[in-house]
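Propose amino acids for all 136 sites.
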């Protein structure tokens, strides 16, 4: 894949991620502000919803993966669960150690995890079983 193709794919991943993030944040705010849930619980539930949205969109629109759901979905959730662990840790650190508002803590956490999710999904979850070799 060329550098410009890689950049275009990363930008599609970021755009798809924005849709998943919107779902994540909507559930986060609804649970915390509407239902009185603790911010960490809201962030966790939002993360799971965002992951499901991201899987469906990234599989089709970013990576055009032909890998079966039986193979890709467990890999996607392994990457996502590692991201969830980072989310819980970073949210706790940002809110408790630094005293940041939960929404600012979530924005910082999301930004830090963007590259993690892209790399994990590009290199492992959705990577084609054949080698991506350019013929010159």
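Proposal:
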């Amino acid at each position: 894949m060329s550098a410009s193709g890689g950049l275009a794919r990363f930008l599609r991943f970021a755009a798809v991620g924005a849709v998943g993030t919107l779902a994540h944040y909507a559930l986060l705010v609804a649970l915390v502000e509407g239902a009185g849930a603790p911010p960490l619980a809201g962030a966790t539930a939002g993360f799971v919803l965002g992951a499901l949205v991201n899987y469906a969109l990234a599989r089709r629109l970013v990576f055009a993966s032909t890998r079966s759901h039986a193979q890709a979905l467990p890999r996607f959730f392994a990457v996502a669960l590692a991201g969830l662990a980072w989310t819980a840790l970073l949210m706790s650190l940002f809110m408790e150690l630094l005293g940041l508002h939960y929404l600012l803590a979530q924005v910082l956490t999301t930004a830090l995890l963007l590259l993690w999710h892209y790399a994990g999904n590009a290199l492992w979850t959705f990577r084609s079983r054949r080698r991506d070799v350019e013929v010159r």
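Residues 3-34 form the longest helix (32 residues). Helices lie at 3-34, 39-62, 69-97, 102-125.
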